[in-house]
Automatic annotation (TrEMBL):
This is Gas vesicle protein GvpL/GvpF. It is found in: Gas vesicle. Keywords: Gas vesicle. It holds the Pfam family GvpL_GvpF. Belongs to the gas vesicle GvpF/GvpL family. Its main location: other. GO terms for biological process: gas vesicle organization. It comes from Eilatimonas milleporae.
Length: 267
């Protein structure tokens, strides 16, 4: 962690005239303060508030005009959000958002989007985002399909020991049957899991399943005091599905999946 007593002869948290600003999030209130975390860019820039009319953008001086989505940059961005979240409800801003000047922060974010931001702050107050993924464990998916779909199992068995050229169309048919069965099985099991999980959440956003073994990929916005209940539920589901399903629960994180705030309202 870098100490931030001065920056180019200016007290930390006081942006120089005409200096570009990297944006992380917006918080309630007009307190001028710095946070004990380094800004993006690897130069130890201070992270501070830019207050305006009851709201404050959390920013740092931006040494770059654009930022690639590298692990280093994403980690720096998320570390700032985690630090601010410890004391404030935040409305996160899209990664890589840079305002050319302090005035532009007000003119393109805080002024025109004030009503939207205040509404989001009210909705997010006391709530956290958690991410949950569920997977079939290795060997489970096709074993279960073949145990109930004898036609698919028999077709597979007929291909054993025969050349790919000889069985080309049968292999295509097998692939199509398996693909359809996997899709149906995933949808059915995802619906069953969501029916158990959703009652704990204020809002639910289902993401695309990534990879064949993934059943469910969901983001949950829930009251902070329900996080223990969610952890207990996931632990119970894990125990019920021992040696069959694998669950990964991540969070709390900044509520990116329930906010799409950018530097300009129509971006």
């Amino acid at each position: 962690m870098t100490a931030h007593p001065l920056k180019n002869g200016t007290p930390a948290g006081t942006p120089a005239a005409g200096e570009a600003q990297y944006l992380y999030c917006v918080i309630d209130g007009e307190e001028t303060r710095t946070f004990d975390v380094d800004g993006i860019g690897g130069k130890g820039d201070a992270v501070y508030t830019l207050p305006f009319d009851g709201l404050s953008a959390v920013v740092s001086s931006s040494p770059e005009a654009e930022y690639d989505s590298t692990r280093r940059n994403l980690t720096a961005h998320m570390r700032v959000l985690e630090t601010v979240m410890a004391d404030h409800t935040i409305v996160p801003i899209r990664f890589g958002s840079v305002a050319p000047t302090v005035e532009a922060v007000n003119d393109t974010l805080l002024k025109p989007q004030a009503a939207t931001i205040r509404g989001l702050l009210g909705e997010l107050e006391g709530r956290i985002e958690m991410g949950l993924k569920a997977f079939w464990m290795e060997g489970v998916l096709y074993s279960e399909i073949l145990s109930v779909r004898q036609d698919i199992a028999q077709l597979r068995d007929r291909l054993v020991g025969r050349s790919p050229d000889e069985t080309y169309y049968e292999r295509v048919k097998l692939g199509e049957l398996l693909e359809a069965e996997v899709s149906e099985k995933r949808a059915r099991e995802a619906t069953e899991l969501l029916a158990k999980i959703s009652p704990l959440a204020y809002r639910v956003k289902q993401q695309d399943a990534l990879g064949e073994q993934m059943i469910l990929n969901v983001s949950l916005l829930l009251d902070r005091d329900k996080s223990d209940a969610l952890e207990e539920l996931v632990a119970a589901l894990d125990a019920e599905n021992e040696n069959r399903l694998l669950f990964k629960l991540v969070g709390p994180t900044a509520p990116y999946n329930f906010v799409d705030l950018s530097l300009t309202p129509d971006a």
